[in-house]
Each structure stands twice: as structure tokens, then as C-alpha cells.
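Need a sequence for this fold. Nothing fancy.
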């Protein structure tokens, strides 16, 4: 925002983080998305060109918000000295715990944006980039696990495992959105039980069946 110094105004040059924070504040304060980039820029003492240096549209900005949630979660996890020594199960648990802490810190915005449209598919459109990032993260976990298995027979499919983790995330996201427990303790329990169960099942059940079951659970939860 502009600061007054005498008769002139000194404006801060916007950056991606500033635009994200300004956009989220706008949505929460006005309870609707900005009508145009021009109006949004003018109201926040910048130009359209300032906005377009970082985002091609509000849709791109909204996807970037989820990217930022993911990157912030990874940053917090990787700062922990213990994290590198965790098992894959512990790393996935840590990721979900951390990510949902980030979401909780931004709960009002997340609930608004995921409930904005009556169409679930449309609301999930902005999670496309996040889906890629979570799948890459989970593929890394299974790659580490497969390296420890000398026989290919016991190795897991990276593609199917990563898809299973994504379906699990969607289930937990819906659970968290509906969670009314103090401190969202029920979500923490759901994370622990689901990750432990998934890893146990993955070790003993064909992954295709796990993914099919997860999709069924997700559909039932969204009904």
C-alpha cells in the first residue's frame, strides 16, 4: 500500500507474495472475487502491468496460492533435522500434518474458494498444479522405498502409488472442511489412521484396488 511522505506517494513495487496476500484479503473482506484485474489493480494502487508481471489471470493466481501452501509446507518439513531420517510412512504423515496446519492458518480463504461454485469439479480446477506437486512428492517416496527392494516383484508402481496419495489427500481435504472438532483434532486422527492404513494395505494389496477404493470413499464423502 502507498505511504504518504509530504505531498507525494511512494508505492511499493508488488511481488508475487504481495499480490497473493492482497488477493486473499480482498476475497475475505468483500466475500467475492475481484471483478477485473483493472479494478483490483487500481484499488490497490498498482497498474495492470504490475499484476501481469507475475500472473496471467486471477485463475493463475489462485493456483499459485495452492502452490505456495505446498512450498511453505515443504520448507517447514525440510528445516527439521529429523525429517531426512524419517521412514516414508513418517514423511507422508509429516507432510499431511504440516500441509493441513498451513490450510488451517488460511481456513477462511480455503473454505470460501472450495465452496465458491456449486460444481465440485469447477472448485477443484485450481488444484491442478497442487495435484502435480503432491504426485511428484509421493513418487519420490516410493522411489526411495523401491531402491531398498532388490526384487522387482516387491517394488511398488510409482504412478499408482502417487495417484493413491492424491485420492487420499482429497478425502482428507473434504474431512478437514467438514471437521468441527476443537483444534481439528479429528482431522489429525484421520491423517494418522489413513496413512498407516494405506501403507499397511499397500504392502499387502494390489495398488489398483486401493485407488479404486479411495475414489469410492471420495465420491461417498462428496455426496
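Here you go.
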Amino acid at each position: 500500500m502507498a505511504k504518504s511522505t509530504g505531498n507525494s506517494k511512494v508505492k511499493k513495487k508488488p511481488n508475487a507474495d504481495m499480490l497473493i496476500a492482497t488477493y486473499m484479503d480482498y476475497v475475505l473482506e468483500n466475500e467475492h472475487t475481484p471483478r477485473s484485474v483493472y479494478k483490483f489493480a487500481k484499488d490497490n494502487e498498482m497498474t495492470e502491468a504490475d499484476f501481469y508481471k507475475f500472473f496471467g489471470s486471477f485463475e493463475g493466481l489462485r493456483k499459485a496460492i495452492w502452490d505456495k501452501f505446498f512450498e511453505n509446507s515443504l520448507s517447514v518439513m525440510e528445516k527439521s533435522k529429523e525429517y531426512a531420517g524419517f521412514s516414508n510412512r513418517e514423511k507422508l504423515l509429516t507432510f499431511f500434518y504440516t500441509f493441513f496446519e498451513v490450510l488451517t492458518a488460511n481456513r477462511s480463504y480455503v473454505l470460501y474458494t472450495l465452496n465458491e461454485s456449486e460444481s465440485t469439479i469447477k472448485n477443484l480446477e485450481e488444484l491442478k498444479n497442487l495435484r502435480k506437486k503432491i504426485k511428484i512428492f509421493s513418487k519420490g517416496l516410493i522411489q526411495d522405498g523401491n531402491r531398498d527392494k532388490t526384487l522387482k516383484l516387491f517394488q511398488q508402481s510409482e504412478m499408482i502409488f502417487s495417484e493413491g496419495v492424491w485420492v487420499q489427500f482429497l478425502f482428507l481435504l473434504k474431512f478437514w472442511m467438514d471437521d468441527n472438532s476443537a483444534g481439528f483434532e479429528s482431522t489429525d486422527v484421520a491423517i494418522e489412521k489413513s496413512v498407516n492404513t494405506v501403507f499397511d494395505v499397500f504392502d499387502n494389496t494390489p495398488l489398483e484396488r486401493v485407488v479404486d477404493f479411495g475414489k469410492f470413499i471420495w465420491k461417498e464423502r462428496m455426496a
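For context: The first strand starts at residue 3 and ends at 5.
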